[in-house]
Design goal:
Elements: E1 7-12, H1 17-24, E2 44-47, E3 57-60, E4 68-73, H2 79-90, E5 103-105, H3 113-125, E6 132-135, H4 165-174, E7 178-183, H5 196-202, H6 220-230, H7 232-235, E8 244-247, H8 262-274, E9 284-287, E10 299-300, H9 308-320, E11 329-333, H10 343-354, E12 358-361, H11 379-394, H12 396-409, E13 414-415, H13 426-429, E14 434-436, E15 440-442, E16 456-462, E17 469-471, E18 477-479, E19 500-506, E20 513-516, E21 520-524, E22 540-544, E23 550-556, E24 570-581, H14 582-585, E25 587-599
Parallel strand pairs: 5-6, 5-12, 6-7, 7-8, 8-9, 9-10, 10-11, 11-12
Antiparallel strand pairs: 1-4, 2-3, 13-14, 14-15, 15-20, 16-19, 17-18, 17-20, 21-22, 23-24, 24-25
Helix pairs in contact: 3-4, 10-11
Length: about 600
């Protein structure tokens, strides 16, 4: 049903035995341990449980129905093919707005509007670009006298901190920043909220009642009022509206809809609501809602501790999440709380995050936990952070093109090494390095500097390819080139030839990132001190790595609307062809071409 080979479907109308037996099956018999599914089957189903519109929800359900259509997808170690079929069943990953790929600022803190605007201006003065300003929970009323509430839930601006909310958001927009507000909706709607009386009428609650309105996403009436009275009022102001919402649900998986996680429902409805006019792309920030959550980007990995062990885990988590199509992770850059604060771990976290899906600074409400780069005493560390955050914005053309590939071809920005080299054992050993787009390998430093040499150390693996690998910062050739194939007998694997496993060392300013020979990496002209995230890049810098033929097809559109669905975008193909004439003439020839491969409609 899904493909012509290696897939099957079973349909069981009355007997659950075969399904239960498969669900209890513990492990595939494969000594190489290279299968996408190894430990268990996930039983998932499509159910019409959506009271808001007609599209089905994709929810986990532990109670099997009398009729169950099961799909078993297994392609041995062709992981991308398995993901392609998983997405055929569960839905594609939407294209995220271009601005989401820049640097985000966030901190749980009782900022005033003036303090937060001044902080954003100082980022600009420090030439550290940002694209998103996150306002945590203290944007709304928290401690209200006379009400027994924990204060986490709120929908009314705290005018003690934000005297003119619309003017505040407008100022952020004028700086080129997009705005998201934090939500903890579990607490419902309390009488002190501005929208309480309207919600009470909407819910047909007695006019004399002063009881809080409970959160209930099993009620279509509540859902309608939830968006209309509690959210649209903050979104609809031209030039001064909230761009998207941070859904910070932490209250469990139970709801009145059997098998439906409230967080998944919140993801689903918020995403639908933001794209209701079919023009602007939806985006949310949410904790992991479960399988199928890839349809509602972006996710965040929770309140991470400031430890080297957590930092070491994040590259592995980010890359292997491609195995369930959950490609748009954001992590608390620098860590949220706990651990020991120091400049080194902050710099290493920043370096990794520049080469991760989403870059979002964040930390706990504490005077002693800070992610403001210039608060560091160490000027070397500050310079390293500034250069990396500038690079992130310069990389947006490359990353945004990969985002388009995620949407149209199901290829994640960050993938494990075994997606490209599934037959090589090293792909399953070097789990803290990963593919970043189609051209790069990233192997971040995830351990402290060795004091006796004042360098950090990492052991990396560079698989053998034509032309080998280059350090993108220095241009240094790193090895991994396949030798002349005429030396080898017919049938011998060329993949194993000249793979490189080596120890590398780096200063605090270094991060190991390698481009394959033939790579073309489009960048916005450097240094990019502010901006670059909202519009098509009119000035591009191309990093070109020799030694092999290669191409890159740059995707560009307006970055914000859904017009790309109607082919309103531009594809520009850069191609390099190398002719090795060293033996004959003593030199090489590069033929480089630029072609517009798609231009159905011009974009301003």
């Amino acid at each position: 049903l899904i493909d012509d080979s290696f897939s099957f479907i079973w349909n069981d109308d009355s007997n659950k035995k075969s399904i239960n037996e498969l669900n209890n099956f513990s492990e595939f018999d494969n000594s190489n341990d290279q299968n996408l599914l190894k430990s268990r089957f996930e039983i998932l189903n499509f159910r019409e449980t959506n009271p808001y519109d007609s599209s089905p929800l994709f929810v986990k359900n532990d109670i099997l129905m009398n009729h169950f259509d099961g799909y078993f997808i297994w392609y041995d170690n062709d992981y991308q093919r398995a993901i392609d079929n998983f997405i055929k069943l569960s839905g594609a990953t939407p294209l995220i707005p271009r601005y989401a790929l820049g640097n985000w600022w966030s901190k749980w803190w009782e900022y005033t509007d003036e303090e937060l605007i001044n902080l954003m201006l100082e980022f600009r003065n420090q030439q550290i670009p940002l694209s998103v300003c996150v306002v945590d929970m203290d944007w709304h009323l928290v401690a209200v006298p006379g009400y027994d509430t924990n204060g986490w839930t709120g929908y009314t601006w705290n005018n003690s901190f934000f005297k003119q909310p619309e003017q505040f958001i407008s100022q952020l927009h004028q700086l080129g920043l997009h705005v998201t507000l934090n939500l903890h909706p579990h607490g419902g709607v309390w009488p002190y909220e501005n929208a309480y009386e309207k919600m009470k009428i909407h819910m047909n609650q007695n006019s004399w009642s002063s009881k809080e309105i409970n959160f209930d996403f099993s009620s279509s009436r509540f859902i309608t009022g939830y968006f209309h009275w509690l959210h649209h009022v903050h979104e609809r102001n031209p030039g001064a509206g909230v761009d998207f919402w941070w859904i910070d649900w932490q209250q469990g998986k139970q709801s009145k809809i059997a098998g439906a996680d409230p967080l998944f429902l919140l993801n689903h409805f918020h995403f639908l609501d933001l794209q209701k006019d079919q023009s602007t792309r939806s985006i949310i920030l949410s904790r992991w809602p479960g399988l199928g959550g890839h349809r509602y980007p972006i996710g965040f990995s929770g309140d991470t501790f400031v430890t080297w062990d957590i930092l070491a885990f994040l590259p592995f988590l980010t890359a292997t999440s491609a195995n369930v199509a959950y490609t748009w992770w954001s992590h608390d850059v620098g860590g949220f709380n706990g651990g020991i604060e120091n400049a080194e771990i902050f710099v290493r976290w920043v370096q990794f995050s520049v080469f991760s899906p989403i870059f979002r600074l964040h930390s706990v409400k504490s005077l002693y936990t800070d992610r403001i780069p210039w608060s560091l005493d160490d000027q070397t560390s500050l310079s390293a952070i500034r250069e990396m955050m500038q690079l992130r914005h310069s990389l947006i053309p490359y990353i945004y093109t990969m985002a388009f590939k995620t949407t149209t071809k199901n290829i994640a920005l960050c993938r494990p090494m075994y997606y490209e080299w599934p037959n090589l054992e090293e792909s399953y050993i070097f789990v803290n390095q990963y593919l970043f787009g189609s051209n790069l390998i990233v192997a971040p430093f995830i351990k402290p500097i060795k004091k006796n040499v004042n360098y950090a150390r990492n052991v990396i693996w560079l698989p053998a390819i034509e032309g080998g690998w280059f350090n993108i910062f220095t241009g240094e050739f790193m090895g991994g080139a396949i030798e002349n194939e005429n030396k080898y007998k017919f049938g011998q694997s060329r993949e194993l030839t000249n793979s490189e496993i080596k120890a590398i060392y780096g200063r605090i300013t270094d991060i190991p990132v390698y481009a394959k020979a033939g790579s073309i990496i489009p960048l916005i002209n450097r240094p990019l001190k502010w901006g670059g995230h909202n519009h098509i890049s009119h000035n591009l810098e191309l990093l070109i790595f020799s030694g092999a033929n290669g191409e890159f097809e740059l995707f560009e559109d307006d970055g914000l609307t859904n017009n790309y669905v109607n082919n309103n975008y531009i594809l520009t193909k850069f191609t390099q062809n190398w002719y090795n004439l060293v033996n004959e003439l003593g030199y090489q020839i590069l033929n480089f071409t630029i072609n517009r491969s798609n231009c159905a409609n011009e974009i301003n």
